[in-house]
Specification:
This protein is of the alpha/beta class. It contains seven helices and ten strands. It has helices at residues 3-14, 47-64, 79-89, 130-141, 158-166, 177-186, 194-203; strands at 18-20, 26-27, 33-34, 36-38, 70-74, 93-96, 109-110, 118-126, 145-154, 171-176. The protein is globular. It starts with a helix and ends in a 10-residue tail after the last helix.
Length: 213
């Protein structure tokens, strides 16, 4: 585990942005039952954790995507993180709506974006990868060169990794499911024996045998 993965995992756990319910799992919109729910919106109301996360996003952009010219947040959870990181980097930012407006200029992409500009997408979390790939597709259709994604958290699901690879999209996550599980067990947020159940979910979300195991 890298230092930044541990640091961000500790920050998210410290502000209770990660919820563990292996006995009573959360149900996602897709129907997947998950023992973990990560609410990165809580970062915005916790100044110390916010500084850690936004600084890490900015440093990751500089390190992994040095040619970046514009940050684009995903709607809605990625918008504030893109704005703060853009401020730290003194870089333009905008965001991509889930769908085009049905009024005004009918924009889907908000903020100035020129064809050929090099863009990095800021996403709060990635599960199966569908929503962030949709954002990347919209930016590519608008003529942007998408260098990749910086996400705060990823569930590390194979389906998400496969989708990103198929779409030729690079993603760098500040922390991930494995790091959260490891740090949570070390710091007694969960029992050590629960880690195997969490990783079983990550490996195969459609297999619900981990529930009540």
């Amino acid at each position: 585990m890298t230092d930044i993965k541990r640091t961000v995992a500790e920050a998210l756990l410290s502000i209770r942005a990660v919820f563990f319910r292996p006995e009573e799992p959360f149900t996602w919109a897709s129907g997947i039952k998950s023992p973990v729910y990560c609410d990165n919106r809580l970062i915005l109301t916790a100044p110390e954790a916010r500084l850690i996360v936004e600084s890490a996003i900015a440093e990751t952009v500089k390190r992994e995507y040095p040619e970046c010219e514009v940050l684009m947040g995903t709607s809605t959870a990625g918008i504030a993180h893109a704005a703060i990181a853009g401020h730290l980097l003194n870089m333009p930012m905008g965001y991509v709506r889930g769908s085009a407006k049905d009024h005004g200029r009918n924009n889907r992409i908000e903020g100035k974006l020129e064809k050929g500009q090099k863009v990095v997408v800021v996403e709060d979390l990635i599960s199966t990868g569908g929503s962030c790939i949709d954002v990347v597709d919209a930016l590519r259709e608008a003529g942007a060169e998408v260098l990749g994604i910086v996400s705060i958290f990823t569930y590390n699901m194979q389906k998400g990794k496969d989708r990103l690879a198929a779409a030729n999209v690079k993603n760098i996550s500040l922390t991930d499911f494995d790091a959260i599980a490891e740090v949570a067990a070390e710091q007694n947020y969960i029992r050590k024996e629960d880690v195997a159940r969490l990783l079983k979910f990550r490996d195969n979300p459609s297999d619900e045998s981990w529930i009540g195991a």
